[in-house]
User: Fold these one by one.
Assistant:
Number 1:
Amino acid sequence: MAKHIGIVACSYEGAALCYQTICREGSVIMGEHSHPDVSLHNHPLGDYMEFIESGNWEGVADIMLSSGEKLKATGADFLISPDNTIHQAFSFVLKKTPLPWLHIGEEVAQEAAKNKFRKLLVLGTKFLMEGPVYPDVLSKQGIEYLIPEKEQREKINEIIFKELVYGIIKNDSKKFFLGLINEYRMEGCDAVILGCTEIPLIVLPEESSLPVLDSTRILSRAALRFATK
């Protein structure tokens, strides 16, 4: 019997994509119309942002743990969070977690290593791009990475929080992302991490000049494998 997946949601668009991926692709593993049991809990993004913007990662962890406790009560066997930024609180989460977790960055780094990528462009919120989540996991795999320049990071962050978290896709924003990816392709990057769970909504694999590492779907597929192994 498959394990029950608990999704600790942060921004709802990314969480919805994660949930959809698990359900849509579950039938490939389990048979027609089948997928593991899935429960999702979501404290408001605003609650998270209060702590993220002040750099209070223990506060972020407390919110994640609150969701984790609720998901345990529903019967979840393990937890995932389709939000890269809040993984900066992961060390605090692990000290008190009621259930085991899969780490989104570790799953992405493993996928990059499997595909023999050697130099990655990391895109995400400014907190993610400037934080330790991907440096930590990529260094363990011996993979180099680049992040955009400060002005570019600010624009990416604005698009994420003013548009993508609301499901708004603008052509100018799409052109900006695709142009940025091509710029770093010419700087020697051989793949791009879509390290915000909403970026896959605007950067499609067939439109990108670099292979994409879609963190949302990579985590969802890892959860499926773990639930059904």
Note: The chain has ten helices and seven strands.
Number 2:
Amino acid sequence: MSILSRLPFEYFIGLRYTRAGKRSGRRNGFISFISMLSMAGIALGVAALITVLSVMNGFQKEVRDRMLGVLSHIEVLAGRQPLIDWQSVLRQAKVNPRIVDGAPYVSGQAMLTHEDSVKGVIVRGIEPAEEVRVTDFAKSMQAGSLDALEPGRFGVAIGKELANLLLLRVGDRLTLIAPQGTLTPAGVVPRLRQFTIVAIFDSGHYEYDTSLVLMNIQDAAKLFRIEGVSGVRLKTTSMMDAPQIADELTHQLVGDLYVRDWSAENRNWFAAVQIEKRMMFIILALIIAVAAFNLVSMLVMTVTDKQADIAILRTLGASPASVMKIFVVQGALIGLMGTFAGVVLGVLLASNIGQVIAMIEHLFGFQVLPSGVYFINYLPSDLHADDVVVIGLVSCVLAFVSTVYPSWRASRVRPAEALRYE
């Protein structure tokens, strides 16, 4: 006995209707063609949605990783007054087992001048030996090294884009103007200090490569005339847990301190990315919806064509619910097959998007992301299992909903009227 024969008759007939057009008349063949189009549309919509969301996740991960080469997972900032005993704050933070290490820093804004050029920058004073414990700056040095930021030497490290903008290189001198001036009988005189470029870094993030200047923490304290440090940068066991850990530290640390994580520092950017992902999901889900609603027309045509069959089933004792179930099975099966094919295609495409784009570039002779224009010259992909599950469920639900009305109409067929002209 075959497996099909063990199924309830509604499933058996629904499965037969799904493949009946392959060996029936012209009308059934057209219905089968519409069914294949609906299945292909659902598959393409699902595959497109999985691929696009994976690429967006890849770009978000790429930018986030580059940000974290510059930013720390968590920052503990001093309140109104500089932080004198930063070691005590670090010891308090390390009570939390998910805090790996920390490093002090001094931060402030300044004007950078070189010849006739002026640029507003963010100055960050660091301790090179401590900084490598919380960020990956040492790996992003294009020229020179962090170790060259020695106290009293007044050396600075600037980003590659800032160096290109002002035509600077290692060994050149520039001037930093601190916002806190010096009061003299002639009025407030801006505080100036000349610095020598000892390193150039390439973080891969344009905002920081054009506006961030690194120097030794002692030199920064002298420039801004502060006693102590601005705060402590912390590294956690997992950057994704940083917001939760930051919330724990807010209640754990004692003193006038402010705790923020890397996502809070770039909240607007991450919020914009999430909105884009949601809108892209809705837009591409409409493709799946259109393909799923093609099932309505296909099932309506099938119901019209099979009215005699429905009438015979009703006279043999089939209930309206059983008739409705037959066409629900037929439409749902097409939706499930299309969803499955789309998930397989989407996962394969998202997992091999780099090779696919390279093949397209080779065939058509153009570059999708030219390295001279974009900072990322390839399409990153980060496939999330939860995205695949949600997309698959949405596709199946849309396909199932599309079968309800035609199946209901089939259950309302009256046997006497259907068989009158047979």
Note: Residues 26-68 form the longest helix (43 residues).
Number 3:
Amino acid sequence: MSKASLFLNACIVSPDLSGNIHTMNNAHLAVDNGIISYVGTSEEEAKNSLLNPSSADMFNCRNKLIMPTFANGHSHLPMSLLKNSADDLPLEDWLFNHILPREENLNSDDIYFGSLLGIAEMIQSGIGATADMYFMAENTARAASEAGFRINLCHDGKYKKDDYWYTDEKGFSEFSRSISNMDSEMIRTSLMVHSIYLYPEYLYPQLSEMAKSLNTSIQVHISETQVEVDNSIRLYGRTPVEALRDFGIFDRPCIGAHGVHLSDSDRKILSEKKVTIAHNPSSNMKLASGLCDVRSLIAEGVNVTLGTDGSASNNNLNMFQEIRLASFIAKIVCDDAAALNAKELIDISTRAGYHSMGFNKSGVLEAGMNADLQIIDLLNPSIWPVGQPESAIVYSATTSCVESVMVAGNFLKYKNDLLTIDIDKIRHETMTRSRRIAGA
């Protein structure tokens, strides 16, 4: 059980449950048993909202900004081990000739330590949750649980034997049960459907039926490159979005990563099927995949989140970088300096991301919501003078501004120190393993 906390005299910036951004100065926030009990301008009401105010930790947050932790809409945590080892390559060459061969050499401990390294970097960036897609996911689950970090975690849900693919409902169910024994409030499970191009046609409808049977959500890559779209049209006579719809993949709640090369018809399908698109600006640019038209997605009613993708393609897990780039890309794509403004991006990177992962009580700082928050130091030179707080978050802030991170009422980072991860041990373990994998 987390200790009660009282944050006084802060600038508080948060979306409400409808996505509208609200900013309060000289405001107070109270946390009791991992839940926000008060947000407002009355110090007396803040204290009275606590079951035992005299035992609460009190923090003077003058010159601090409190906002929800970010939700990373798409990641591959263990790929932190592959950072800076295969760069300046187009996606198909990068994936099939460099990354996939190296991944064959990963073992369960590699996945565990690589996940901890990625989680540590995310916490430093003010991220409190991620939607992660990788194999041997039970090791990533263990890392997230030990770190006190929220995660929507994919399970493979299939296996290959004698050149034929089979669904694995039993394996998925066992994985889900093991996760619930860790912490069902912190970890969600979903089915991994990597992409439209990695499996034979017969497997997709089977995966869709399995997801329905298990009542689980799905994570998938969608229309990341023009090559992917062209190959899908050649193979199926349909775009990836159309093919995935027809295979039934969108009949379950779905996070689709990238969504770079979409037609107007594709966007309508995504909206009708309530598919979330996780926009990954840095990865898309670095792999020359293209520029996602986020404003057209939002205009069509598609829920959009922000993701970092994996460290092998992005080389970092910095949500401030993604937020800033997402805004700049939208302005160029739309030829409109007002496109994807600061308030929209704060909502996309917090409330919308948590909603897509199934953490509906996070991403908003209101009474009754989870105490998932980050504290930003407004005296940091990169953000000072603050001016408009929303603009400062999106256009000026860097990871060095994040002083503290709280998830479920527990500090994962406090005054710039990681509390739940032994970063020196992780550095040692991951360097040794990274060298082995790169040399394999």
Note: The radius of gyration is 21 Å.
Number 4:
Amino acid sequence: MLEELKNKVCDANRLLEEHKLVIFSWGNVSGIDRKSGLVAIKPSGVSYADLHPQDIILVDLNGTVVEGKLNPSSDTLTHLILYKAFSSIGGITHTHSRYATVFAQACRPIPPLGTTHADQFHGEVPVTRPLRKQEVETDYEANTGQVIVDRFSKLNVDEVPAVLVANHGPFTWGNTAAESVKHAVILEEVAHMAHATIGLNPQIISMPPYILDKHFQRKHGPNAYYGQK
């Protein structure tokens, strides 16, 4: 069932190791088939080298396993909350990549300091509030998704396809599983640059909005002219 989606999600998960976003099995990618309402996601704790398309788990939006013999990722409910809240999302990536996680652990958003950031993220990459004790003790993964949804109540998930979960790490998304990984790669590079820039100039402030807008819109706006038609 959904063999093409499982193949794409498997390939996307392998990209995490290729791009050095993970060590061991510290990350996961999922993709959704909106027609059936089924989500394909990495099994929990399986190394990327040992991962095959037939290992990918299919779950419905309630978290019930529809196909697969292994346990789905422990972050599955977080993914499902995001899919249910944001209909434009087709794939989700979660990692503990070093610099993005540094900002998450510091409970600091990543400010837009330069055009590399603006080319992908139309504003700062936000950080969620920390989860409360009761939220951790009851439905931890679902509540992790909910604090992301809450953080984006006044933000556009298509203009900022990333978030830092406080004390935890980054989640990124896109139209496909592969695109969500691409955004995770860009997020890590942007986080690395921001960390170094703040270290070099602790008084640095966000870039002027008109430069931010120009660089984002020329790639993603209605009159975008970056690249080939």
Note: DSSP finds eight helices and seven strands in the chain.
